[in-house]
Amino acid sequence: MAPYRNFKMIGYVVYGRGCFNQLAEILLPHRKENAPMIFLVDHFFNGKELAEKIPLRGNDEILFVDVTHEPKTSYVDSLADTLKGKYDRISGIIGIGGGSAMDLAKAVSLMMTNPGKAQDYQGWDLVKFPGVYKVGIPTLSGTGAEVSRTCVLTGPERKLGMNSDFTPFDQIVLDPDLIANAPADQRFYTGMDCYIHCIESLQGTYLNEFSKSYGEKALEYCRNVFLSDHTWDEKSDEQLMMASYAGGMSIAYSQVGVCHAVSYGLGYLLGTHHGVGNCIVMDHLQEYYPEGTAEFKEMVKKNQIEIPQGICKGLSDMEFNKMIDVALSMKPLWENALGQDWEKKITREKLRDLYEKF
Ligand code: NAD
Ligand code: ZN
C-alpha cells in the first residue's frame, strides 16, 4: 500500500452568512434540459421558512426525508428507485440538513448511476461510477459529513459507509445562519462529535502536521463555542460551522479512535444516534483520553446537558457480545488510538466493563 493517502476533496465551497441565497446561481450551470434538481431536505424543515427559500425551477422537486432513525441502505434504495422510476435523468441531488440528510444525499446520488443495492457498496472503494452532481448544505455542524469521503449507512449486515473517491460532494454551501436555531441539546450532541473527532485525531498515532493543523484549529473553536461565557451568538455559529469543516479535514488524514469504535457498537445494537452515543461513551474514557474526558465533562456542565444514562441496563450477554464485536471490527480506529499492538491493549473484558457503565 502506498505510504501516503491521496484523498479526494470536495469540489466547491461557498461560505458566509446568507450564502444560501446564492444557491440558484450556483446550480444554474449544472442544470440539464428536462432534468430536475432534487432537494432531499431534513423533515424538520417541512413547513419552515428554509423550505420556502429553496430555488425551485421547472420540474424540480423537494423530498422531505425522515431522519428519525439514522440512514438505512433500504431507505437509500427506495429513494433512488422512486427517482429512477419517475425521471429519465436528473440534474443533481441537494442534501439539506444534518449529517443524516447529507449522507442520504451522497448515497442517493451514487445509487442513481451504480447498479445493485446500496448495501453492495458499504466498505472501501467499492463504488464503480461517479454519482450525479451533488451538493451538501448543513443545518447542524459537527459531523464533518460535509467534507468527508463517506456516507454512514446501516445495512442488513453492517453499519458502514460508502467510502470512495466518488462520495465527496461536488459543492457545499456553508451558511452559519442555517444552524442558528437548532435546539441546544442537538447543537451540543452534534458539536461534540467534532470535539471528539479532534481529541481522537490529535491523540492518535496516525497524526501528522496536516491533520494537526486542522485539528488544533477545530479544537480551539470548540472550546470557544462550548466553554466560553458567550456560548451562543452569531460568532459561535460561524466558529462551530468551521470547526466541523476543519475537524472533518483533520480526520481525513488521520482517524477517529476509542470513542467512535465503542459508540458504533451502541449505534448498531440500540440505534443510539451518533452524537448522543459518542457523548455517552466519552463520559467514561478517562483511561484513554484523560484530559479530553475532563474537558468534555466541563462542557456538559457548562451547557447544562443531561447525558442519557442506563442505556445498557439489562442487556443480555449476547447483546453485549454483539456490541463488542462491532467495536473490535473497527481495526483502524483502534490502531490509531492505541498503536500497532492494540490487540494486546484492548480486551473483550475491558470493553464489557465499559459497556456495563452506560
Ligand atoms: P442528524 O442529521 O441525525 O439530525 C438530528 C436531528 O436534528 C434530526 O431530528 C433532524 O431533523 C434535526 N435537525 C437537523 N437540523 C436542524 C436544525 N437546524 N434545527 C432543528 N433540528 C434540526 O444529526 P447530525 O448529528 O448532524 O448527524 C448524525 C448523522 O451523521 C448520523 O447518521 C451519522 O452516522 C452521520 N455521520 C456522518 C459522517 C460522515 O462523515 N459522513 C460523520 C459523522 C456522522
Ligand atoms: Zn463522528
What's the overall geometry?
Answer: globular
Number of domains: 2
Uncertain regions spanning at least 5 consecutive residues: none
CATH superfamily of the largest domain: Dehydroquinate synthase-like - alpha domain
Beta strand %? 5-15%
CATH arch. level architecture of the largest domain: Up-down Bundle
CATH topology of the largest domain: Dehydroquinate synthase-like, alpha domain
Number of helices: 14
Please write the string of helix (H) and strand (E) elements: EHEHEHEHEEEEEHHHHHHHHHH
The Rg value, from CA coordinates, equals: 20 Å
Strand order of the largest sheet: 1-9-6-4-2-3
Which small-molecule species are bound to the chains here? nicotinamide-adenine-dinucleotide, zinc ion
Describe the sheet with the most strands. Answer: 6 strands, parallel
What is the count of β-strands? 9
* Helix content range: 40-55%
If you average the pLDDT, what whole number results? 96
CATH hierarchy class name of the largest domain: Mainly Alpha
Distance between the termini: 38 Å
Structural class: alpha/beta
